[in-house]
Amino acid sequence: MPRITADEFNALMAEDLPWAHQGGMRAERIGRGTAVLRQPYTERMLRPGGTVAGPAMMALADATMYAVVLSLIGKVKLAVTTSFNINFLYRPSPADLLAEGQILKLGKRLAVVEVTLHSEGHGEPVAHATGTYSIPPKAEQKS
Amino acid sequence: MPRITADEFNALMAEDLPWAHQGGMRAERIGRGTAVLRQPYTERMLRPGGTVAGPAMMALADATMYAVVLSLIGKVKLAVTTSFNINFLYRPSPADLLAEGQILKLGKRLAVVEVTLHSEGHGEPVAHATGTYSIPPKAEQKS
Amino acid sequence: MPRITADEFNALMAEDLPWAHQGGMRAERIGRGTAVLRQPYTERMLRPGGTVAGPAMMALADATMYAVVLSLIGKVKLAVTTSFNINFLYRPSPADLLAEGQILKLGKRLAVVEVTLHSEGHGEPVAHATGTYSIPPKAEQKS
Amino acid sequence: MPRITADEFNALMAEDLPWAHQGGMRAERIGRGTAVLRQPYTERMLRPGGTVAGPAMMALADATMYAVVLSLIGKVKLAVTTSFNINFLYRPSPADLLAEGQILKLGKRLAVVEVTLHSEGHGEPVAHATGTYSIPPKAEQKS
User: Fold this and answer.
1) Nearest to residue C131, comparing CAs of C118, C115, C109, C120?
2) Alpha-carbon distance C55 to C88, whole Å?
């Protein structure tokens, strides 16, 4: 069982991640060490050429990593990204983005997560990201 | 002389980068291979702990890289990020973010850019990013 | 069918990649868009703590990416790494390293590759890397 | 004053980093939070096209980051790289490589370091790397 459910993560976004919640981002499924998040398409996400801009993909990837980490350690809100890397593969057409994240390593102090992003309806991934999260010591974990 | 001015880049954001423009992002200075952009603080940028979220920094860094590239090649809107890496150094307090970008390499097909982000009023940088941009062949460069 | 076989890639390493060949690195399997390379353990690879050093993993990952790219475009020796990112997951014990690479995207000008590294005999991966390769225009591709 | 000198770091490489020492790598200068390392040119470093291979640059960048971290925390041998990113800018001609590293952030648990690499005799940098190091808790720091 994951230590945070999709509903709980969506509630956390509504309360604490306005940049994600206001854009309509939501968790669809969370497992133990995995998460699937969706970013519904809005015109706000566009860039020249009529494709979806990089930062929309970065934001979705980062939130997905957060969900993956919390699925393993519970609602430790102060877990924070320490590094983030993304490769853009194809320019996404104006459509919903879907992100699938999975844990690569969970340590006591660091977690490493991988995320693959798709544009809904397309087979090839549009981006691939990895990131590291710093997990605070127990004493700091009261949220 | 840069091949795009701060005013021209701000007009481009207003027209073509809604995610940047609607949040109030603006270019303050653009030189030849350099750019300074500001992201005014809004509550939308927050994350748990009351600090500014990673994606707000990523978006500002990415737009700054775009400005640096266009300062050298002109208004080639289809230049696109191919990879992006960011290290988070300090959690930014709720304040404007300032990004300083500079070119590391301009090739015929790829440009590499470095960006340092500060939280206004703080000496230490809050994040450091690098990214590569793919420059389209001449034939594709009509914007 | 891959456009370079494991034997051909090993011959290329013997001729053109002395840093890989002299350390005993070899391709075990190459498919279309995939490659498995092995770095036999030597004491030269150690770091303090008696584990295998990061650069040994980086070198194996980079050679594996090269094999993956050549499996798709043939013996285009001047394909070069343009960016490379690696996350270290577990400290590898003194044992052979095995790298599995797979293509994430093959474009006309850029290829993106993912590599997972294992320490032989251990289930968990020790590192995960991604990289981009620049593919030279046809005119430059005589090797 | 740095907490490790260039001589002390060279002795550490001779004892504990055979992959660096055997190739002739050496520290030229270490300051507080800065380090300059040199990799003398050898044919072992070549790749197709007669330029210096990526892994030679990665190894030098990684050792330089280690020197920068130890310049601030002393001879804590078990500080380890957790993530590493490098952008290749120009193909280095067959010549010595020089790396200049500087600290971006020193935290209690993580350090972030930036390294710029030059090919001796050339003005433009050949590569730019960033990396994060995990600093072990005090109890583990006996080397």
Assistant:
1) C115
2) 11
Please give the Cα distance from A92 to D118 (Å, whole number). 37
- Cβ neighbours, 10 Å, residue B51: 18
Of the candidates B90, B105, B124, the beta carbon closest to that of D90 is on: B105
Which residues have a Cβ under 8 Å from the Cβ of C61 and sit 6 or more positions away? C84, C86, C99, C101, C115, C117, C127, C129, C131
Query: Which residues, at least 6 apart from B42, have a Cβ–Cβ distance to it below 8 Å?
Result: B23, B24
Q: Which residue of C has its CA nearest to B105?
A: C82
- Identify the band that residue B143 occupies on the pLDDT scale cut at 50, 70 and 90: very low
DSSP-based three-state secondary structure for D13: helix
Assigned token pair, D51: 């330029």
Nearest chain A residue to C83 by CA: give it: A87
Question: What pLDDT is stored for residue A143 in this prediction?
Answer: 46
Question: What number of C-beta contacts closer than 8 Å exist between A and D?
Answer: 16
B130 touches chain D (CB under 8 A): yes
Chain C residues with beta carbon closer than 8 angstroms to that of A85: 85, 130
DSSP A44: G
- Interface size B-D, in CB pairs within 8 Å, comes to 36
A112 and chain C: CB distance < 8 Å anywhere? Answer: yes
| ipTM reported for the complex, 2 dp | 0.95
Q: Which of these, D85, B136, A84, A121, lies nearest to C107 by C-alpha position?
A: B136
Q: Cβ contacts of residue D141 below 8 Å, gap of 6+?
A: D76, D78
User: What is residue B141's predicted lDDT score, i.e. its pLDDT?
Assistant: 59
Tell me whether C133 touches chain B (CB under 8 Å).
Answer: no
Polymer length of chain C? 143
Q: Is D23 at the interface with chain B, CB within 8 A?
A: no
Contacting C residues, span 79-98, partner chain B, CB-CB under 8 Å:
82-83, 85
* pLDDT tens-digit readout, C50-78: 999 999 999 999 999 999 999 999 999 89
Q: Which chains does chain A touch, 3 or more C-beta pairs < 8 A?
A: B, C, D
Backbone angles phi, psi at D132, to 5 degrees: -115, 140
Cα C86 to chain centroid distance, Å, stands at: 12
Write out the H or E segment, with its range, that includes residue B131: strand B127-134
CA pair distance B88, A30, nearest whole angstrom: 26
Q: How far is A143 from chain C (nearest CA, A)?
A: 27
Tokens of C135: 């593919």
Measured CA distances, D68 to B29, C111, D65 (Å): 33, 33, 5
pLDDT tens-digit map of A80-139: 999 999 999 999 999 999 999 999 999 999 999 999 999 998 989 999 999 999 999 875
pLDDT in tens, B81-111: 999 999 999 999 999 999 999 999 999 999 9
Find out whether A19 and B45 touch, Cβ atoms under 8 Å.
yes
Does residue B22 belong to the interface with chain A, where contact is any CB pair within 8 Å? yes
CB of A4 less than 8 A from some CB of B = no
Is the pLDDT score of B12 beyond 80? yes
